[in-house]
Write a structure and sequence with these properties.
Layout: E1 2-11, E2 16-19, E3 27-30, H1 33-53, E4 79-87
Antiparallel strand pairs: 1-2, 1-4, 2-3
């Protein structure tokens, strides 16, 4: 299953961080923006896998541009939004 999820990238003095407004509690960090995006993609995939494994709906996770974001933001800003394409599938479970 592929989900398109908006994330917010925040640049700090020594690293970057990211969060997804549509997926509260799912965050990631990295030394660079690209590393942060990769880490966030992994964190979101893991989070969505857990939701699917628990039988929770992932259809509610919206790809709508966050209301708090400014459409004029760019990668040059200290904080901006980017769209990630996340692949998630149910975790393989084995019955004991």
């Amino acid at each position: 299953m592929r989900k398109d999820i908006w994330i917010c990238i925040e640049k700090g003095e020594h690293n970057c961080s990211a969060y997804a407004p549509a997926v509260p509690g799912c965050i990631a960090t990295g030394k660079t923006v690209e590393e942060t995006k990769r880490n966030m993609e992994d964190a979101l995939a893991f989070h969505l896998d857990g939701m699917l494994d628990d039988g929770l709906p992932v259809e509610d996770i919206s790809s709508v541009f966050p209301a708090a974001a400014s459409p004029g933001q760019s990668e040059n800003d200290e904080e901006y939004f980017a769209l990630l394409h996340v692949e998630a599938s149910p975790l393989a479970r084995t019955e004991a």
